[in-house]
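#onboarding

Welcome to the new folks! Below is a worked example of what a typical request in this channel looks like: someone posts a single protein sequence, and someone else replies with the predicted structure as tokens. Don't worry about understanding the tokens yet, we'll cover that in week two.

Example request:
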Amino acid sequence: EIIALYSGLAKMGHAHSVEAWNQQGDLVGGLYGVSLGAAFFGESMFSTETDASKVALAHLVARLRVGGFTLLDTQFVTDHLATLGAVEIPREAYHAQLTAAMRQDADFYSLPEGCDGDGAMQSIGQTS
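Example response:
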């Protein structure tokens, strides 16, 4: 069971990590990337326990949605990312979305500090 998530490196920086830790205090999964404007560019994911990277990605998506991000660039769509909803879009559509995202501001730190996995999912699952 994954019990802890940690996000971010420095509040002024553009590089961010989302980490998943188990009950024994071991880092078991995560991802990192770079934010510019309202775009987040995912660089790498890893996991040493089942679904740890999925937990980190779900937390990232919650953080991006709450923070006003409009584009999550995964570089390419893998089978793993496709199971989580990633889709490939045409180059022209990507350039239009990227241009729009770069003209907007977003806040990687809008999700409350210490928000756990359940809290992150609740923040993006609310319809009211």
